[in-house]
Amino acid sequence: MKILVGADVPAYNPTAGKNEIGSVRPLGGTVVQRLFSDDTPDGLNFRMLRSHFNGEEGAYDTPRHRHAFQQIRWAQSGNLNYAPGQDIPEGGIAYFPKATWYGPQHKAAGISVAIQLGFHGEQQSGPAWDEVRPRALEALKRSGTIKDGVYVQVDPETGEETRTDSVQALFEKQYELRFGTPWKTPDEGYEAPILMHPDAFAYFQIAEGVECKRLGNFFDHPGPNADVRLSMLRLSSGASYTLPVERAQLFWSTRVGLRIDTTDYPELTFGYCPRGEDGAIGATQDGVEVVLVELPRLD
Asked: Which domains does the chain have, with CATH numbers?
């Protein structure tokens, strides 16, 4: 199991490698901290990011768009916009199904924790994708420009602009270069992102000193274990919760008092337990809350 304390991740590390724990400033004034990523043997690919939005001058804006990957966003602080008149309030969680349209979005303040995940090219993290990224960027630059998270192409005959989310444009080009076929985003199964208000859900006991609230299970892939499961745990002092080995898990604490093995951790401690690995989380005081994301599997 891998553990990161949020306060220990550099606020800005321009020399960090593409997959190194650190951070970059790729989108205007936004600071993006890299937390975890993996490209697993069973085809799951994900990355976990913590983004700091630092004011109107460097605001993060994107046009209305969609992705082939799934997303989970938690508003650590501030109200995080994802479409006109639609925000994730502080402490709220939103699930963005694959291929679901959202935006245009404008983010100028607050901190977001985001997970992006998919299978077989839907999400593209890791060395295999890093290898084709420079060629993909060069190809995009030959036919347009990338600035502040938007890819802009201009029709040479009409002068008409086409604006695309830069991440989606890059993923489509990387997929084409790696596999030799164009990427086709599937039809959306969900009409819109799903916004959850965790405080409105009630806890129930699942073990001695361990309570749980289930926020939602979302199927974007076929199969009995292909759902993303979102939950919150509340641990009493001395209690312990064993993470199921059948799935990969991501989690983070919202309060001080988390204990893993014999080490005590502060609030905003993040963890990744790969599928098949043993892991358990405990508490040194009552009321320690943990957000738990159980990642899907296709087999």
From this structure: 2-119 (2.60.120.10), 127-178 (no CATH), 199-294 (2.60.120.10)
> Is residue 26 pLDDT above 70, yes or no?
no
- pLDDT per residue as tens digits for the range 215-263: 999 999 999 999 999 999 999 999 999 999 999 999 999 999 999 999 9
- The reported pTM is 0.89
Q: How far is CA 177 from CA 119, 135, 148, 255, in A?
A: 17, 8, 24, 44
Reading the block at residue 139, the tokens are: 């190809």
Could you count the other beta carbons within 10 Å of the beta carbon of residue 1? 16
3-class DSSP state for residue 203? coil
The residue type of 33 is Q
CA–CA separation, 61 vs 28, rounded Å?
9
Q: Note whether 257 and 283 are within 8 A (CB).
A: yes
